[in-house]
Amino acid sequence: MVKKFFFTGISSKLSERISSESLAVFRAVFGLIMLWEVFRYFQKGWIERYWVTPEFNFKYEFFSWVEPLSADGMVLLFYLLGVLSIFITIGFLSRLSAALFFIIFTYTFLLEQVRYLNHFYLVMLINFILIFTPAHRKWSVDAWLFPGIGSHHILKWPVLILQIQIGIVYFFGGIAKLNSDWLSGSPMDAWLPRRSDFPVIGPLFELQETALFMSYSGLMLDLLAFPMLMYRKTRPWMILSLVIFHFMNDRLFTIGIFPWFMILALTIYLPPSWPSDLRKYISGLNSKHLTALFTVAIAAGYTGLWFHEEFSILPLLSSAFIGIIIYWDFHRQPAETGITASDGVPMIPYWITLAVILWCTVQVLVPLRHNVIPGNPSWTEEGHRFAWHMKLRSKSCSETFYVEHPDTGERLEIPGTPLLENWQRRKLSARPQLVIQYAQYISRINNDQPVYADIECSLNGNPPQRLIDPDVDLTTVKFYDWKANEWILR
Q1: What is the mean pLDDT of the chain?
Q2: pTM of the model
Q3: Nearest to 388 by CA among 375, 378, 380
Q4: Pick from 4, 219, 282, 300: CA 20 to 30 A from residue 43's CA?
């Protein structure tokens, strides 16, 4: 009886009928951010750097069979991603475009494990959700070409699942910070002094108190973001705080599109009809308030551009846009726009409720898996990926690899880490899953000889210690992300 009541309550919430405007804007925002990301790959020469030049690419477990295309093939693939980004933005063949983008983007993600970034993983999750949402029912080419699919209203579940998904990123990013290093100011106390050239406040970055302040403020923002974004009276304050937070992150760290995607994604927490509400609000302003709004937009735009440190049209427009949103959200009345059912959208099917519950359950359990594995995931890397562990560790390592002569048992040192690019070397020794792959690659090019490694690492400024057992032949072991690996020292 309780289960039935619980399930019915969720179905009822997911079946509420809301404006389709918010989801349509989110679709367009996602497409624009992806178009910018594709442009950056061409602009910075990353296609050749990551998939043409390297002699060896590190693979994900179960996907060792995934290989890059030829140089021309990879370039063509990114042109296709650019076209699909445009299609998603304008809502042309929306679901098919989202599905194809997901397949191709996931393929490029699987080609090189060294390049794992949490925001790539988030893009894949959001992209997958968009495949199944009616994001094309408003302000889309699809709705223009096929008027029958257009609708001013949709069921609430697509917006709610996006809100939950983005909220999970913040919340579990905060949960991951509840560790002794972060609470003592590490690794912020190592990173911030490197940015002491930061205008005005740069000298403060050398103080331990600043590291502690930024560590604890980041922790509280992450933990409180989701509930405060979902509550009307605290939402504008949290949006403002998160925008400043992401501006700072973009200035201090090299994290690509992530700050700007997360800034624009905040619009999903606004009332579903916010685009029309905002338009009505602006049209009703007198010249004095219109000037104030215009001033806020300009100031926000150039502030975002200043934090970005280089001219780029999307950060400029994103900052100006979110400035207008914040100004409006602070001035509008607390009451939300009403939920309507004017065009008879049917009740949510049973399988959608089940799918939403299953999706959210998986998204909660996956980041928690490291809790059943002994050791610190920032050290062992077990359960670290796909868990929103962001900017938690600073690892410096020294490594020596050896091949063992099969007859004499003599170990011969391999000077340096040949056959790798610099961007691969920087992460190799700190991540046992990469060490295994590299050792096996060395073995293959050395007549399948046993390979050993002596690796010492310092985590967040702590004294160096061995990361893996130097007496284990690395060609005979595997890395498991979901359980303890005995060859990793704890």
Answers
A1: 92
A2: 0.93
A3: 378
A4: 300
pLDDT given at position 392? 93
Q: How many CA atoms lie less than 13 Å away from 451 in the CB half-sphere?
A: 23
Nearest to 418 by CA among 46, 53, 56, 47: 56
The token pair at 226 is 């989701």
- Secondary structure of the chain as H, E, C letters: CHHHHHHHHHHHHHCCEEECHHHHHHHHHHHHHHHHHHHHHHHCCHHHHHHCCCCCCCCCCCCCCCCCCCHHHHHHHHHHHHHHHHHHHHCCCHHHHHHHHHHHHHHHHHCCHHHCCHHHHHHHHHHHHHHCCCCCCCCCHHHHHCHHHCCCEEECHHHHHHHHHHHHHHHHHHHHCCCHHHHCCCCHHHHHHHHCCCCCCHHHHHCHHHHHHHHHHHHHHHHHHHHHHHCCCCHHHHHHHHHHHHHHHHHHCCCCCHHHHHHHHHHHHCCCCHHHHHHHHHHCCCHHHHHHHHHHHHHHHHHHHHHHCCCCHHHHHHHHHHHHHHHHHHHCCCCCCCCCCCCCCCCCCHHHHHHHHHHHHHHHHHHHHHHHCCCCHHHHCCCCCCCCCCCCCCEEEEEEEEEECCCCCCEEEECCCCCCCHHHHHHHCCCHHHHHHHHHHHHHCCCCCCEEEEEEEEECCCCCEECECCCCCCCCCCCCCCCCCCCECC
163-201 pLDDT, tens per residue? 999 999 999 999 999 999 999 999 999 999 998 888 888
Q: How do residues 300-345 score in pLDDT, each as one tens digit?
A: 999 999 999 888 899 999 999 999 999 999 987 645 554 554 444 4
Written as six digits, the tokens of 409 are 């048992």
Q: How many CB atoms lie within 10 A of CB 83?
A: 16
What tokens appear for 234 in the block?
């605290």
The per-residue pLDDT for 257 is 93
Give the pLDDT of residue 261. 96
Whole-Å CA distances, 55 to 438, 445, 459: 12, 12, 29
CA–CA dist 455, 32 (Å, integer): 43
